[in-house]
Amino acid sequence: MAVKDELYQLADKMNADPVHIKDEKNRVFQVDLEESGPIQILLKEGKVIVEEGAPHEPEVTLKLSDKNFSKLLKDDLNTTMAFMTGSLKVDGKMGLALKLQEIVKKYQ
């Protein structure tokens, strides 16, 4: 399964049970995938919207391989080690990158 499909499935799961995102501020996270290009994850009014490309100004951008993003979506990536070894790069607010990981973890 392509990593974008995994993200769409996770977004559907989150929207079906928005208990962990309903109180989140409106945010734009961008993920620059090495193989697949940019994709944005919007938290807006208690819902998750996934948009391919980069139509919005992101608050944080994560740069990593499709394989590592797939691991992140499954809460199977040690983000600290990935960051320290350079396989994950973060532009913008580091706290928001951690917030995204925290939200993903709640839906596993």
Specify the CATH homologous superfamily: SCP2 sterol-binding domain
In DSSP terms (H or I, runs of 4 or more residues), the helix count works out at 4
Mean pLDDT: 94
Proportion of helical residues:
25-40%
CATH topology: Nonspecific Lipid-transfer Protein, Chain A
Detail the poorly predicted runs: none
Termini Cα gap: 17 Å
Strand content: 25-35%
CATH architecture: 2-Layer Sandwich
- Computed over alpha carbons, the radius of gyration is 13 Å
What is the string of helix and strand elements? HEEEEHHEH
| Record field, number of beta strands | 5
| Overall geometry | globular
Q: Structural class of the secondary elements? A: alpha+beta
Q: Major sheet, described briefly?
A: 5 strands, mixed
Count the domains: 1
Spatial order of strands in the largest sheet:
3-2-1-4-5
Give the C-level CATH assignment: Alpha Beta
